[in-house]
Amino acid sequence: MRPDSASAPGPVVATGAGPVRGGHRPDGTVAFLGIPYAKPPVGELRFAAPEPVTPWDGIRDALSYGATPQRGDLGETLIPEPSIPGDDTLSINVFAPGVPSSTDSDAAGRPVLVYIHGGGFVQGSPASPWYDGAAFARAGIVVVTVSYRLGFDGFGLMPGAPTNRAVRDWIAALEWVRENISAFGGDPGDVTVAGQSAGGGAVLTLLGMPAAQHLFSRGLAISAALTNVPPARAASLTTRLAELVGVAPTREGFARVDELTLLHAQRELEKQRRGSVLSSVRRRLADGLSWGPVIDGDLVPQPTLDALADGVGGDKPLVLGTTDDEFTMITDGLTDRLRRVPAALALALLGVHHAARVRYVRANAPKRRLGTAAFIGRYATDRVFRVTVPEVGRARARATASTWAYRFAWASPTLRWSLHCLDVPYWWNRLDAPGVARLAGDAPPQALADAMHGAAVAFVRTGDPGWTSWSAQPGSTRVFGAAASGDDTGGTDVDGATADVDADGYASVAALVRR
Prior knowledge:
Elements: E1 12-15, E2 18-21, E3 23-24, E4 30-36, E5 60-61, E6 91-96, E7 110-116, H1 134-138, E8 142-146, H2 151-155, H3 165-180, E9 186-196, H4 198-207, E10 218-222, H5 231-245, H6 251-255, H7 259-274, H8 277-287, H9 304-309, E11 318-323, H10 328-331, H11 343-349, H12 354-363, H13 365-368, H14 372-386, H15 388-395, E12 403-408, H16 424-428, H17 436-440, H18 446-462, E13 477-480, E14 499-502, H19 510-513
Parallel strand pairs: 2-5, 7-8, 7-9, 9-10, 10-11, 11-12, 12-13
Antiparallel strand pairs: 1-2, 3-4, 4-6, 6-8, 13-14
Helix pairs in contact: 5-7, 11-12
């Protein structure tokens, strides 16, 4: 707790648990950081569902980011996401154009953007400078970024503990927004849920959950890694993890293991899954992520695509898409080893059956000309990320609200590909943030950020990002930036000043949709 009743400059807002003091920023926006939405998940609450936060006396300073579920220094990651120690890890951050007053009617009822960070459900931090919501706030949008439990603590399946604790965290954060965001100038009935990578998967999971439908109005799923872990696999992972730490695979058993020991065991379990680069790719394609939303028959009653096909979330507009080469940088290290390996043989080594190999090779000739390593990188990208777009588009074919698709095709000048995470600072219009130059170079095109951030702002405000929807014309896809790495289709403006629309932007993954 950080309540402080002493007088200090900065806007003060009353929440249901007590008043919080934020900070003014040079651009005229305000920020409230590290506001708890649930009690610290420690002690008896470690593997429990989130519980409402205990109210505090006095004014609580909300001037610095709260503790993060991510622990330790992970070294250089694609997105700089710092770990912050402490127990009070279930918190939110609010960025707003200003605090409404009784005489400022224009400041009330602004649209709200709630953002769930990525990191494969095992890492990531809402304290990243890339997720600073100032640009959205300047556009009249109230932004909320959310922390949630990661890895086994958030998703592990075990007797005696509620399932999908991290998913329950997302819901608790959205309930906090519903109850409190009007005090920050936001409209609780006009909420867009957005996220990238695992966070994009979280958006789709929430979209397909009956229990979450009343909490948001639309979704923006960026590079969504859609993960639905079957109960049997989740139980198997729990058993293997328990064996590594020497306890029974129950809540009581894991409660005796300290946080750091359990974290190291999870990382060891992941190392055992990896092996060589090629075997790691094959294993990841076969099994998916270790931790993620579990199909529990309750909170997550069925696979997301099935839920969407049944009409769940069909009244909510959705924007989704990917970068063109999410994973290709991972297979760059195989360039020499695969130089003389035909693309079809490489697919066979990954377990792809003959008919699918033939279809996929024919559909991806431009990428095959760049070499087998690049081809396999595209295949991994398609299997994990890009295939989700046509699958979701097909599942939502009878939805009453529209679905829009996009591709991010601008290639990194430093890391060669239109890789995973490269698009994030463009969506947030944070090209000057620390770490962006490592991915986007010293002169990232501002025009591309203007186009992407503008589309996001339009969608949050109106429910329409501004191009032909997949619902109106199946396959229609907006292409942001230059033509895809090695492709013959896509946008034509290299500096990203314009964005073209493909008639069928995800045609090259059609073979996978038919698997």
